[in-house]
Specification:
The chain is of the alpha/beta class. The protein folds into three domains: about 80 residues, Arc Repressor Mutant, subunit A (Orthogonal Bundle); about 100 residues, Periplasmic binding protein-like II (D-Maltodextrin-Binding Protein, domain 2, 3-Layer(aba) Sandwich); about 100 residues, Periplasmic binding protein-like II (D-Maltodextrin-Binding Protein, domain 2, 3-Layer(aba) Sandwich), CATH 3.40.190.10. Strands 3, 4, 5, 6, 9, 10 and 11 form a seven-stranded mixed beta sheet that branches. It has a two-stranded antiparallel ribbon with strand order 1-2. A hairpin with a 2-residue loop joins strand 1 and strand 2.
Amino acid sequence: MDTRRPPGQVDHPPGLEGRITVHQLRLLVAVVERGGVTRAAEALRLSQPAVSHQMTSLAASIGLPLLDIVGRRVVLTEAGEVLHGHALRVLAEFDAATRSMDELRGLSRGRLRVIGDTTVGIYVLPDVLGDFRERHPTVDVRLEIGNRQHVSDRLFASEVDFAISGRPWLEPERPVESTPFLANQLIAIASPRHPLARRRRIPLARLAAEPFIVREAGSGTRETAEEAFEQAGLPIRPVMELASNGAIKRAVSRGLGVSILSRYAAALEIELGLLVELPVIGFPLRRQWHLVRLRERRLGPAGEAFLRFVEAGDWRSRVGHPLATE
């Protein structure tokens, strides 16, 4: 095999992309490791002429001789030694990439990024994501929590895989797919010392007359509560606006007013006797959290696994146990 002056040799070849293949680099390494074309062909279960042809084509693409025949041995030229060194590194990266892709397909690695609005992010998603990670312990799971605007900003900037929000966006910036995630009941709460706490049945108008402690503007909880009172023609009287469920619960427990929160958010304080659920006619208000993702964004294996996990739904019986007072 003559590879010293390959046909079509050029003195200054342009970039090698598109002119040499990973297969050719693997053959070059095999020829060097096996000490010849024939042994490389046997090891790779290829014909000797096929390997020789690829080596000739590789040398022609490089524009320099790569192999010399010394006796019965194949010896690398200077250019061959340089290319061989690069080939080893290139093939090592390809092999590493192959392992990584195999690991992703097998979910032995991967990343899942989820953002949720305040209530679901604090009281529900840690349970859900913890359950998911028990099944896929090597997946890197990341949770962000924010108000509705922050959730939408992160979703539409393609910085998260999924958003969990109380209301789907009516006119989203980008096409989305939205599916029901979990039912959410909003309840009226008060201090156990509040006069309404002893009532068995409370008209909505009576509740509307109380001083209200409300979430910040833009909160899905606040929007739902205000809509319920507006539909009944009953304006409420906010006396305090707080951007934290924990702060609202503390203020309510001190007797500063009544409020409306998710049952998930108030469960622990009700269980401890720090708050009471008021039996208001027409309550609880029923909402639905939604799982939202960008329609054109392709999910990775971890995202696909999470979507299947959510759709299976067996996690629902294990979420929302009262553990935190935030």
